[in-house]
TrEMBL record:
This is DMT family transporter. Coiled coil: none annotated. The chain crosses the membrane at residues 7-30, 36-53, 65-83, 89-111, 123-141, 153-170, 191-209, 221-243, 250-268, 274-293. It is a multi-pass membrane protein.
Length: 312
């Protein structure tokens, strides 16, 4: 059981490390692409790669399960990324980063309501949540002279955090059906792409593949499509299956820390003492939230070996 949990923690950490570095690729691509173009292209690449990795359809045992896959694609692929990107046009990136970090709190609430998880959330979970949010605020606003509130963007950020929590809870429910993790993720991507098409027309999407002739654009879109989408959604879904949605979502706290470290190492940006202290406090919050969290869902019937086999 401990080895199974250890694999889940390692996979969750790997996922947020990759996701914490995606802003660099996105920043490069935004010089040539619109946000919705980046999203649609990266998930199409992810879908194709997952199909090549594990061909064949997901043969559902019950037709009503299709609604859960559609909901997962709508929440985790379409709505989350669209709301996050639109929020960035209305409010500061720092506001978005802080607000989205409340996703673990939403996940805990939804898990108790819809997954009927037993046990109690220890005080350490809430202490960790408070510590992490304070730390993320310190990192996000360390260089700002004033705190700016922008209702439209900030509310969209809250919405993004909520739909990501919904995605995590839905993913946990789907994992109980015992389907291949890769096929499950690909099926979600299919719905996400389908739901994203109307938004693509609304935001004046242009395919313009000639832009990928630039090696820098090509490498970055491949990183987002193959790494941050295909691989990391599989690893995230695997972690949710092993650890549960609440314990996995807590790793979201680490994403801003990874972003700051990457900024220093790759972009050579300077980190202020306040931001450094905030990063440390955020990591303390993550450890507190993970350490004595006692939310137990129904036991997973698959062994870790079976799950790893599906990921391969």
């Amino acid at each position: 059981m401990k080895s199974k949990s250890g694999v889940g923690h390692a996979v969750a950490l790997f996922t947020v490390v990759v996701w914490g570095t995606t802003f660099i690729s996105t920043k490069v691509l935004l010089r040539s692409f619109q946000p919705v173009e980046i999203l649609l292209i990266r998930f199409v690449i992810g879908y194709v790669l997952l199909f090549l990795a594990k061909p064949g359809l997901v043969r559902l045992t019950e037709k009503k399960q299709e609604w859960l896959f559609a909901a997962a694609g709508l929440c985790g692929v379409c709505l989350y990324f669209l709301m996050e990107n639109i929020a960035l046009t209305y409010t500061l990136a720092s506001n978005v980063g802080v607000i989205i970090s409340v996703a673990p709190f939403f996940t805990a609430i939804l898990s108790r309501i819809f997954l009927k998880e037993k046990g109690q959330m220890k005080a350490s979970f809430f202490l960790g949540f408070v510590a992490a949010i304070i730390g993320i605020c310190m990192m996000s606003f360390s260089g700002a002279e004033t705190l700016e509130l922008n209702p439209k963007g900030d509310l969209l950020s809250v919405g993004a955090a909520f739909v990501w929590a919904c995605y995590s809870v839905i993913t946990k429910k789907i994992s109980e059906y015992g389907y291949s993790t890769i096929k499950v993720t690909r099926h979600m991507f299919g719905y996400g792409i389908l739901f994203m098409i109307p938004a693509a027309f609304a935001f004046d999407f242009h395919l313009g593949l000639s832009r990928l002739a630039d090696p820098m654009n090509l490498l970055n879109i491949l990183f987002l499509g193959a790494g941050a989408s295909a691989l990391c959604f599989v690893t995230w879904n695997f972690a949710v299956q092993v650890l549960g949605p609440v314990r996995t979502s807590v790793y979201i706290y680490a994403s801003p820390v990874i972003t700051i470290v990457t900024s220093v190492l790759i972009l050579h940006e300077k980190i202020t003492p306040v931001a450094a202290a905030g990063a440390a406090l955020t990591l303390v919050g993550l450890v507190l939230s993970e350490g004595k969290l006692e939310l137990k869902s129904s036991p997973n019937k698959q062994s870790v070996g079976e799950i790893e086999g599906e990921c391969r």
